[in-house]
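Below is a typical protein record.
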Amino acid sequence: DLAFDGQHNLYVTDSVGKIYRLPNGGSALTLWSSDPSLAPPTPQGYGADGIVWDGKGSLYVNTFSGGTLLRFPINADGSAGSPSSIRVSPALSGPDGMRLLDASTLLVAEGVGRLTKVTVSGTTATAAALKDGLNGPTSVAHFGGYGWVSEGQLGHFLGTLSGPPSAPFLVRRVAIP
């Protein structure tokens, strides 16, 4: 996934457990963080995935296989600060694409077929499902009171669902209360 901060620097997650940064006006990505919390929990798993700027001075990052949510401060010099773990209840399952709704609320596409609203308060958060039954959602965009969710049908690629994916791949509109 990718996200811009307020200075127009671009951050890109790598599911092997890294975040890269392209400075505003730059021409090459550089390693921004390889903190161990970004790594997959198993050799077959996926680590850092969804990423979003909080509108202030930090990035929220989730890990797909581990189901974790982290907050990374952006230091004054642009480097990565030490991440803090955010305990989400109920726990996220296969969090993928993520977008900021407001200063303390995230939209998260969960690989188990769910679009979830996550309300963050310090180092804890509450998750509330907005829509179940999605077909392997991978990303979400927020516009006009709706979450626009792409269905990537990941279960077919990851081996948790048998058979090939079905075409066409769809984008679903979900009302955001």
The chain has a mean pLDDT of 96. Helices lie at 154-158.
